[in-house]
## 1
Amino acid sequence: MSKKINAKTLWDEIIISVINEKVFQEAAVENWLKPLKPVKYADGILLLETENNFAPSVLNHRYRKKLIDTAKKIDTGFVNMRFGVAGEKIDEENTAPSSPKTENVSQKSVKSAFFSHPINKKYTFEKFVAAYENRLAVASALGIANSPGKMKQYNPFYIYGNAGAGKTHLLHAIANEIAKKTDVRIILISGEGFYRNYSAHLNRENYREFESAFEQADIVLFDNIHELSGKRESQLELYKIFNRFHQQNKQIVFTANCPPAELSGFQERLITRFQWGLAVKLDMRSVETRMAILTNMANELKLKISDEEITHIVENCSENIHELEGIIVNIAASVSLNRTEVTGDMVRETLKSRRIEPMKGFISPKTILEAVCSFYKIDLEDLKGKSRVASVAWSRQVAAFFLKKYTPLSLAQIGNELGGKNHSTILHSIKEVENQVKKEERVAKEIKEICIILTRN
């Protein structure tokens, strides 16, 4: 394009082009690119502003290279693109950092403790599907990966969400990103792994070896820290590690299944420290987000499946991404084995053979309570009351389980729905149902039947 073009026109044409050519997922365009404001285009350099402090890191890392390639096709005079935060001066002189290579990450420069979990090379920022509800979590994680320990207000970094929301993926993505840039000592370990290793070295001569590993580490990433619930001595060791890292400005990252304030079986001083930094929630309730994840996975498996069938899977199953991916794997295996194409009947048969759960957020608390009362043949007034009769108490626990699983309510809010129960009572109820489902086939059958009732409703 030889004629002179202004910033807004160029940016509008870039957006149209990446949409038409499907350069990025639709969610990425809506959440990361469209909110950008073009402020200047001079000497072949396009300046763009965002309201999000972390967005420039994400944009440079994930989108800049392909945006530049697109811009060069539109204007032959295009040279570069810069991203800045509204109200701050954009550096027009220095070139923004180029997007890192997306090849497999070499782990040669990463020194890990002898008990540290291996870093999964597949879990990268590039493969984490961008979604509106997770912008803060992804941008913060990338910012921390680029400058671990440098931003004290984000140390510790605490990521929470339900199972299958992508917490572990994001944790490994941080480790992979740090490993690209520098020679670091990383410890990546689960709460259960920490407990086992600490217990194995306690009161032995090689305890010093365990302690030394954390003293020498530059960054520590704790996955599923809620697994330390009730483990007092391990929590005391974690408390000492936390204090040492925080004082030395070394980065600490945690993942858990709930926000710090809702952790059960933890010392108050630890919970307080978890709240010192930034706590963000990962959420996969958006249909569009989960569709994008399954579409990506289907493409990786070279599975031809229509958007309609992807939508059917997402709308009729749990928000747990691992479960959804398991369905795609099953369908892919059937297609390969039977040398056939994906059909609606095949998808429905696959869903029928697995645990069917409605999507969280589509069922009201009223509907859940009515369904539980109907199933167990008790009055709503009794369910919300103080009766300790075994059948009523169990029904109340089941109601708490479904309210937590299928609504966005906090534990305190669930307690209010059930007549003013406190959050620790609700947490105990949920765990009791989860344990009984694993132990008792009868209970598992009851829960599945209620799931089906809710799905039909």
## 2
Amino acid sequence: MNKQFFKLALLLFIGFAVVSFSSCKKDENANAQPNAIIGNWTVNKTTVSLTVGGMDLIAYLTTNFGVTTEEAQAFEDMLKEDYPDTDTDTETVEFKADNSYHIASIDMTDEEDGTWSVSGDGKTLSLVDSDQDQTNLEIVSLTASALVLTTQLDESEEFDFDEDGVNESTIDIGLELNLSK
């Protein structure tokens, strides 16, 4: 498992929550202050999405390979076992005013420290861990009490769906994350 995935997996287990991506949520970003991120955040839920060419994996499989929705769902569930959705308040993230951060599980078994920055346009949160590995997350919304982030993992899975020895598709893996104060 590469360092970037480890960092994203740690964030995944932090338990960020998915929220709707309405235009008003995106408008909140335009007025968000980058230092609104400073403080202690609790993670509520993380959701993993799997797509092929921008199409939801289940829709892709049912449309292109004639499998049933149940079969496609079973395949997606199998793939998601490596990237579990979470919905418990098991981790915290502290973004400090000195642009450092600390991620910790409630039981303190997993911890990470590094630095953070928000891009000038307020749309990207960059985390650089102690090994100098950088992870960029899109800021969907940032308010005084809620932070919603998304990212695409650099990893993807190639599959030979019709078992002819040729990989027909690449499955892209995305995360939708939410924190609350």
